[in-house]
Design goal:
The protein is an alpha/beta fold and 646 residues long. It has 26 helices and 17 strands. It has an 8-stranded parallel β-barrel, surrounded by 7 helices. A 7-stranded mixed sheet has the order 3-2-1-4-5-6-7, sandwiched between helices. The termini are far apart.
Length: 646
């Protein structure tokens, strides 16, 4: 067993007169069955001052069992600890609330740093967050560990932290920095090796005194105690959580017990991921790893990568948003949190915090030696721009009104309505946009030897309203010749389909080239085009008789498309940075699109159930590519996907 150095005899004689509070508390606890809150608070002050005898300190912590404490005692002890903390007094505007998302730790699970990641998302959604935290005690990676691994300076003081938060919405308050007096009890706690009252004080001792807090606790028994302490401290709103499995945070795996403080009233309830519009995942899918691996997961979430860890973060961030009064219900809070990530705001908050935490303390923030890796989408777009500039220098195009094949463009909005009329008396549920593509960056070769004319005729005769042709050569292995061949093969059919140029349009030249080769419409990707350029490209397309398909994947992109006057919007369910497909994207964004604007669902469509899902949220058309390109019988697959049933 470890021994405790209780100091020399002369140390005890000099401190004897000042040990009365600690002695009194120990005596009351061991002989009278308990001490008052005032006595406990004074004893902790003596410990924090450095004047507490180590042996008496150990006796006090042993006798004052954390699981037997009253709310009044915990409040008094927490106040004494805060009194010895370094100050942090952020200035808030009227109606602003200060939020913390924090857990006690010690739940026995080693999960991803969800409270830290959720705090960044919370700040990006409009909250002011000063997160109180420490290094890992039992898990592989604590909040301080992961932020430090990403380059943050943990040693900011109160004034610096307030400045950082004012500028980017978030800052981290490192417990070891703000509670220097805890060094006086560190050796005793290590030697004891058991939980003491100090194990439950962390979330209650944020020196910035948040007015709103979401806190996880390692024991269900702590829930009622914690919420009472928060009420006594004057906190406006708070929620204390403990999951059914034992997590000190909201669980993505199932039910979580919650104690809620609102306007002085305390209520209890149980919440689960479906209450937030989120699926459940097993806890092994959100397991924590060492700092470098957790850091990568953290960064991937900031970049929009979907999956269990993303859902885990959304769950906790949306709950915090609701507690902070920034969303009226859990599901709307989830959408707000999701948009904070998908818009790039959360990533910017993280980057700004890391930079500011260094510069505010006078530390030169190192420039990244390596350029940030571009997404595949922007890599392709940059390559296309270079190719088009070279081509346009060699073959300048005059403005044209009809294509060189001599046929005017087919109005895609009308053709979609005709397509929905279907194959006979029974209407198709949606119009089909059937795609021809040989390969893709995410899937590699799909159908490299396809006969594009034969495939196009199968599509057209099976009722496709639009045939989408991938013409990008390097990654998708298509050419503009493919588009021309499809148009020539289908233009003489009865009720021919529209032909869509599916490419990365970054220059007006591509729109003119598309029309010259028979395209009836072109794809315009919002994330590649500033609003003014998007407006111009829409104008150019319409001047050539084409109504463009405007692709969006996020809420802000839908707003841009509508501001540019788009009449035909496609929602891409695939994140082109991570290639992850989220089939709920169309449903979420469809709510923003007015009825007079035609909606198409793009990417990930494999089954009749997928098609019906998009029909239910208002899609007039669906684009199907890989499923048809891999199908042994594309015509039969089309019937199964969209044909109306009696």
């Amino acid at each position: 067993q470890k021994s405790i150095n209780i100091g020399s005899k002369s140390d005890h004689l000099r401190a004897g007169a000042r040990m009365s509070a600690l002695k009194t508390a120990v005596k009351q606890l061991t002989e009278a069955g308990g001490c008052t809150p005032e006595e406990a608070g004074e004893a902790v002050k003596e410990i924090m001052s450095g004047e507490g005898n180590p042996l008496l300190t150990a006796s006090f912590l042993t006798a004052l069992r954390w699981d037997k404490c009253t709310p009044e005692i915990v409040s008094a002890v927490a106040k004494s600890m805060r009194d010895y903390a370094l100050p942090c007094k952020p200035e808030l505007k009227k109606d602003e609330v200060l939020v913390d998302v924090v857990g006690t730790g010690g739940d026995g699970f080693d999960t991803f740093n969800v409270s830290t990641c959720a705090s960044i998302v919370l700040a990006a959604a409009g909250a002011k967050v000063l997160k109180h935290g420490n290094r890992s005690n039992a898990s592989k990676c604590g909040s301080a560990d992961i932020l430090e691994a990403m380059g943050a300076n943990l040693m900011v003081d109160g004034a610096q932290a307030s400045k950082v938060m004012e500028e980017c919405g978030f800052c981290f308050l490192f417990a070891q920095k703000f509670h220097p007096s805890m060094k006086h009890v560190a050796k005793v706690r290590r030697a004891m090796g058991v939980r003491t009252i100090f194990n439950i004080l962390g979330p209650l001792t944020n020196p910035a005194r948040p007015t709103v807090q979401l806190t996880g606790v390692f024991s269900k028994n702590l829930g009622p105690l914690y919420i009472q302490v928060m009420k006594a401290s004057g906190m406006k709103r708070a929620m204390v959580v403990h999951s059914k499995e034992g997590l000190d945070e909201l669980s993505i795996a199932g039910p979580t017990y919650a104690w809620i403080l609102d306007d002085g009233k305390i209520t209890e309830k149980t919440v689960s991921p479906p209450d937030f519009g989120l699926p459940c995942h097993s806890l092994d899918k959100v397991a924590g790893k060492e700092p470098t691996k957790n850091m990568r997961t953290f960064q991937e979430i900031m970049e929009g990568k979907k999956g269990p860890c993303m859902d885990f973060v959304l769950l906790n961030a949306s709950c915090a948003l609701w507690v902070a009064g920034l969303a009226p219900d859990f599901k709307q809070a989830t959408e707000k949190a999701r948009n904070a990530i998908e818009s790039g705001k959360a990533k910017k908050v993280l980057e700004d915090y890391i930079k500011l935490s260094n510069t505010v303390a006078g530390i030169a923030y190192p420039k990244q030696e390596k350029k940030e890796e571009k997404s595949i989408l922007h890599t392709i777009a940059d390559h296309r721009l270079a190719v088009v500039k070279d081509l346009s220098a060699k073959v300048p195009f005059p403005m044209v009104t009809v294509n060189s094949l001599g046929t005017p463009a087919i109005n895609v909005l009308n053709r979609i309505e005709v397509g929905k009329m279907g194959r006979g008396k029974i209407p198709d549920i949606v119009a089909l946009m059937a795609e021809i593509k040989r390969a893709s960056p995410s899937k590699g070769d799909i159908n490299i030897g396809v006969d594009v004319v034969r495939q196009a005729l199968i599509y057209a005769k099976s009722g496709a309203s639009v045939i989408s042709v991938l013409t990008e050569p390097k990654w998708f292995k298509g050419t503009i010749k493919d588009l021309r061949a499809v148009k020539e093969a289908t233009m003489t059919l009865e009720n021919p389909p529209c032909v869509l140029l599916k490419d990365f349009v970054v220059d007006e030249y591509q729109i003119l080239e598309a029309r010259m080769n028979g395209a009836d419409l072109v794809l315009l990707i919002v994330t590649l085009l500033p609003l003014n350029k998007l407006k111009h490209f829409i104008h150019v397309s319409r001047s050539l008789g084409m109504e463009p398909l405007v692709e969006c994947a996020r809420e802000d992109e839908v707003k841009t498309a509508l501001a540019a006057g788009a009449k035909f919007i496609g929602i891409n369910n695939r994140n082109l940075k991570t290639f992850h497909v989220d089939m709920d994207t169309t449903g979420r964004l469809a709510k923003m699109i007015p009825k007079e604007v035609k909606l198409a669902a793009l990417s990930g469509i494999k089954t009749r159930a997928d098609v019906e899902k998009f029909y239910d949220v208002g899609a007039a058309a669906v684009l199907v590519g890989e499923t048809l390109m891999r199908a042994k019988d594309p015509a039969d697959t089309i019937v199964k996907l969209v044909a109306g049933k009696e």
